[in-house]
Design a protein that fits this description.
Blueprint lengths: L9 H9 L7 H11 L4 E4 L6 H13 L9 E4 L3 H14 L7 E4 L5 H9 L4 E4 L1 H9 L10 E4 L2 H6 L3 H10 L5 E6 L4 H10 L4 E4 L10 E7 L3 H12 L7 E5 L2 H15 L4 E4 L5 H12 L5 E5 L13 E4 L7 H7 L9 E7 L4 H11 L5 E2 L12 H18 L6 H16 L1
Parallel strand pairs: 1-6, 1-7, 2-4, 2-5, 3-4, 5-6, 8-13, 8-14, 9-11, 9-12, 10-11, 12-13
The structure holds adenosine monophosphate.
Length: about 425
């Protein structure tokens, strides 16, 4: 099912395409039409399922364009970090609209936030405490709020936000649509949902967490992109790699890997499929792979689910999927129908974080293998080092909102020093 099947406007569909989303995730498939139809939703889904876009897209669709001065939708999130993340997604998805959004959280000047609200806003994303403080200072008019989202409700309750949430519910207009998302569904969340939601549609996404026992998994810790390419070359030169799918997160990397493999093994052995290839090209490539006309298929996640090819000897994850469930889907392409297969993942320093999450999801630790000693040594480029440092900072902040971010701090300090020198 493509995104264009949802009743979303062109501006949103363009933004979705630009974000690189080609197929809706399960929660999006279920929640977007339900929310667009105006129903309340109780969504049990974890981070990594695509839940943010699942609630933002219908909200942005309903808000449509900038209107009046006062907010019409409110998203409450437990931490500053999550609120900022949601705002980032809102920013990306509303690029082609004139909708105005703001994020409010504690620890920064409240007056500036109030001034920003008064300039006019359509969507507010906030932590409950700060939203209530702004309200008590008469910094926000709430009577036009038509949609309310509580994100990570279980965490908000664990953090003791229940009194603030109750008060916010009291001050908001009665007639509004409410969406409640929670990673888990303990009795206290059930109770909250009964109090808060009206005839909600319950959507529960349990990430597919079982990997076939016929698949042997292992991973290589690889310092950089150049070494990943060399390792890929090294492995594919072995005879045992008879029928291989190489997975990549993005089209860009998929194309790069494809070009490299064509140079090394020739066009007769390799094909690439991703969302930019038309349907016929994709089907031809999959058929050629199924019929053993080619040995290696380079692919992005988009097509992982659709490939039903037996006797795949190896799946190689050139990078680690960030939608964690994709890992299960990717490696499910091998070891089908009781045949044995191997799934090998290349992990750099910045991806180690996601591997830990995947290991939690699949309830297994993935064995590490040492890099082949024959592999040449490649220095990590300055740009790649920076990219990884930035990714690691983002991950640390996600886990601990108080983490200051070694990378950004250093960069700022350097800038300050530079200015001083001038
Ligand atoms: P979330 O569960 O909302 O935190 O989303 C997890 C990650 O998946 C984010 O990096 C999103 O940008 C990404 N994402 C969300 N929806 C899709 C989709 N349909 N296809 C690919 N990536 C997505």
């Amino acid at each position: 099912m493509p995104f264009s099947d949802f009743k979303l406007n062109k501006q949103l569909l363009n933004a979705v395409a630009e974000a690189g989303y080609t197929t809706p995730t399960e929660i999006q498939e279920k929640a977007i039409p339900t929310a667009l139809a105006g129903q309340d939703i109780l969504g049990i889904a974890q981070t990594g399922t695509g839940k943010t876009a699942a609630f933002l897209l219908p909200i942005l669709m309903k808000l449509k364009y900038a209107q009046g001065d006062h907010p019409r939708a409110l998203v409450l999130a437990p931490t500053r970090e999550l609120a900022m993340q949601i705002q980032k997604a809102a920013q990306a998805l509303s690029t082609y609209t004139d909708l105005r959004h703001l994020v409010l959280y504690g620890g920064t000047g409240i007056q500036k936030q109030i001034e920003a609200i008064q300039k006019g806003v359509d969507l507010i994303i906030a932590t409950p405490g700060r939203f209530m403080d702004v309200y008590l200072k008469q910094g926000v008019v709430v009577k036009y709020l038509k949609t309310l989202v509580l994100d990570e409700a279980d965490r908000m309750m664990d953090m003791g936000f229940m009194p603030q949430i109750r008060r916010i519910l009291e001050i908001l207009p009665q007639k509004k649509q409410k969406l409640l998302f929670s990673a888990t569904f303990p009795p206290k969340v059930e109770k909250l949902s009964q109090e808060f939601l009206e005839f909600p549609t319950k959507i529960e996404i349990t990430p597919q967490a079982t990997t076939a026992s016929t698949v042997e998994q292992y991973l290589y810790e690889v310092p950089n992109h150049r070494t990943k390419i060399a390792l890929l070359h090294h492995l594919l030169a072995e005879e045992a790699f008879e029928k291989v799918i190489v997975f990549n997160r993005t089209k860009k990397v998929a194309n790069e890997v494809y070009k490299f493999l064509v140079r090394k093994f020739g066009k007769e052995e390799v094909k690439v499929i991703h969302a930019n290839k038309d349907q016929n090209t994709r089907i031809n490539a999959i058929n050629a792979f199924r019929d053993n006309q080619i040995r290696i298929l380079v692919a992005t996640d988009v097509v992982a689910r659709g490939i039903d090819v037996s006797a795949v000897s190896h799946v190689i994850n050139f990078d680690v999927p960030i939608l964690y469930e994709e890992y299960v889907h990717r490696i499910g392409r091998t070891g089908r129908a009781k045949q044995s297969g191997k799934a090998i993942t290349f992990v750099n320093e910045a991806e180690a974080f996601h591997i830990k999450k995947i290991e939690t999801l699949i309830k297994a630790s993935i064995p590490r293998k040492a890099l082949p000693t024959e592999l040449p040594y490649f220095e990590t480029s300055f740009e790649e080092k920076q990219q990884m440092a930035r990714a690691i900072d983002t991950q640390k902040k996600k886990e601990n909102p108080d983490f200051k971010g070694a990378f950004h701090e250093k960069k700022k300090k350097n800038l300050r020093n530079k200015r001083k020198r001038k």
